[in-house]
Amino acid sequence: MLAYVIRRLLLLIPMAVGMIVVTFGLLLLVPGDPAAVLLGPEASPEMIANLRRTLGLDDPWYVRLGAYFWQLLHGDLGRSIFQSAPVSEIIGGRIGATIELAVVALLLATLIGVTLGVLAAVRQGSLIDTVTMLLAQLGVSMPVYWLGLLLMLGFAVQLNWLPAIGRGAPMLDAIVAALSGRPQVLWDSILHILLPALALAANSAAIISRLVRTSMLEVLREDFVRTAYAKGLRRPRVVVRHALRNALLPVLSVIGLRFGALLGGAVLVEMIFAWPGLGQLTFSAVSQRDLPLIQGIVLTFALIFALVNLVVDLLYALVDPRVRLG
Amino acid sequence: MAQLATSTVGAAIAVKDLEIRIRGDRGSYPVVADMALTVERGETLCIVGESGCGKSMTALSLLRLLPDAASASKGSIEINGEDFLAMPERRVEDLRGVEIAMIFQEPLTALNPVLTIGEQIAESVRRHKKLAHKAAMARAIETLQLVQMPDPARRAKQFPHELSGGQRQRAMIALALACDPKILVADEPTTALDVTVQAQILGLISDLQKRLGTALVLITHDLGVVAEVADRVVVMYAGRRVEEASVYDLFEHPIHPYTLGLMGAIPRPVAGRPATERLVDIAGTVPPPWDLPKGCAFAPRCPRASARCHEERPPLEEKRPGHFAACWEHVDA
Ligand SMILES: Nc1ncnc2c1ncn2[C@@H]1O[C@H](COP(=O)(O)OP(=O)(O)OP(=O)(O)O)[C@@H](O)[C@H]1O
Ligand code: SF4
Ligand SMILES: [Mg+2]
What we know:
The structure holds 2 protein chains of 2 kinds. Chain A is globular, with a radius of gyration of 24 Å. Chain A has helices at 2-29, 34-39, 45-55, 61-73, 87-122, 127-141, 144-158, 171-179, 183-220, 223-230, 235-273, 278-287, 291-319. Chain A contains 13 helices and no strands. The termini of chain A are close together. Chain A folds into 2 domains: 2-73, no CATH class; 90-319, MetI-like (MetI-like fold). Chain A is an all-alpha fold. Chain B has 2 domains: 13-99 and 182-325, P-loop containing nucleotide triphosphate hydrolases (Rossmann fold), CATH 3.40.50; 109-180, no CATH class. Chain B has 12 helices and 12 strands. In chain B, α4 (117-129) packs across α5 (133-146). In chain B, strands 6-7-8-3-9-10-12-11 form an 8-stranded mixed beta sheet, with helices on both faces. Chain B has helices spanning 55-61, 89-95, 107-110, 117-129, 133-146, 152-156, 165-177, 195-212, 223-229, 247-252, 257-262, 307-311, and strands spanning 13-24, 27-39, 44-48, 70-79, 82-83, 100-103, 183-187, 215-219, 232-237, 240-246, 317-320, 323-325. By secondary structure, chain B is of the alpha/beta class. Adenosine-5'-triphosphate binds at residues 22, 24, 31, 49, 51-57, 67, 69, 105, 289 of chain B. The site of magnesium ion has 4 residues of chain B, from α1.
């Protein structure tokens, strides 16, 4: 088990190297000059050339790539060209908000997706089933930004129930505050995260609900479900303890993969709801061609994604006794 | 329709005129018809017949656990004198596992792959005996010991895939016996076990019968087992009873050509054939339930078939006292 975890962690290194090289190559191909962006439209060609030299942008690509790896080896992600602060610091200030948003969205998606999927399967062919699958169809085909704007218009602008933009106190701080007698702080954080998380979760919830339904329908026909009934167990217990537990196994790895999709979707959602996370940062870094920052963000996303998948695989081995890690 | 001579009042199981119908891609057709069974407390009824003749369907209907595609479309089932088919679901759930339990045919697929053997047995005990977790697990291990599971405490912590076929079958049996059921339906419970263990398990079940007066419905291919444990025997073919008698009568004077075929002996000399010729298997195959022949379903394979057999289905009739058969040209006992 430990050996397996270590092996998986070591595998992250070649993956990270690959990601860096690919991002680097892509940015070489995309037109745009950070020096020009930095100095603005008034700058003379000499000024731009000067700045490019100071920033090391004129060095051949292999020198720049080599220098970047050399930095990384020393645990240094470099400095942002535009914000004149270390990349690690900038990312560190933002990452919490994005992870919080993605985790809450994943929880929402799982909760909604599993509940609807189970209901649809247990009541196959009923109104609940039809409505759920229609909702799922909608959820799968609706673009994130569109749903985000719709939710904002409806719940924030029209009904004025929820704040349209921004973030409350970080969720963990808010929970601590609530525990020390200030529940309104937590309430405020929840109200803020509800719309962006829902917009982000919809797509995944739809995918999960379809998957859970299919998987449940299959498992409910299995012999061991009949055995559970033969023991005299009541239906809810059979459905949850015997059927759902087995039906969730194939869903689990998909839930893990959805986390990657959620990080991607976060970029759009954060723009719409002014959520101060990595998504917003990505947008500005790309439009400014802030190379070190982009590299840092890509690396961070890749790392989160890989770690989440490792956790999912470990969970899988935990819930399915037939799976051997190795 | 022929009925058993015995009274059905107060019987543990009383099935009358039961038809089980499948609704599927091939339309609607019966897989079990004119079924009647009476099993008294402490009595053992064996059901024999080739693969696909409706034994498992009959067994499942006794727990109201027929697959979605199948349903009891006619007739009645009484469990301890109560109308079982009209019973509310919650009451059926209260009876299952403790009043009436079942040993399923396929122990590999019939056990939950993600729960340990011990958990699966203890769950049933907790449900019916209102025991705490620990006590239920102790009872589970005790039951595993009872069915001769080697190293029961360790096996209880293992998952189905970690056990051998025979061990899984024993786990399945333990699961059914855990709550001392008053009625036990066993669908080929000992097929994967070697002869010694099989004898042990059958001995165990008959102990249970003596101790609790359990009524047993045993489905098996093995006529040796039937001779050993049965009080009465029902021989099924293509969804119907073709012969029914006490075990003594059946083995002493089998009268239906199909039963004789099963016993591996050819019926009384037919023209040109010596009486000593043995049949290893009955030639031909069972017709599918959606395409049964017009007359006697066995006619295409029957060495005694006459013109009438192909036209008219023979009713089940009492040919000798307590001995029923459905055949136009049956062997005279
Ligand atoms: N779920 C199902 N859907 C449709 N038809 C089924 C289903 N299960 C069984 N059948 C059909 O019902 C008939 C009776 O099947 P059953 O399982 O009762 O036979 P059996 O006597 O138990 O055979 P075996 O000795 O192989 O266990 C068969 O023709 C079978 O194909
Ligand atoms: S009725 Fe005719 S075909 Fe059917 S078993 Fe009897 S002899 Fe054979
Ligand atoms: Mg069967």
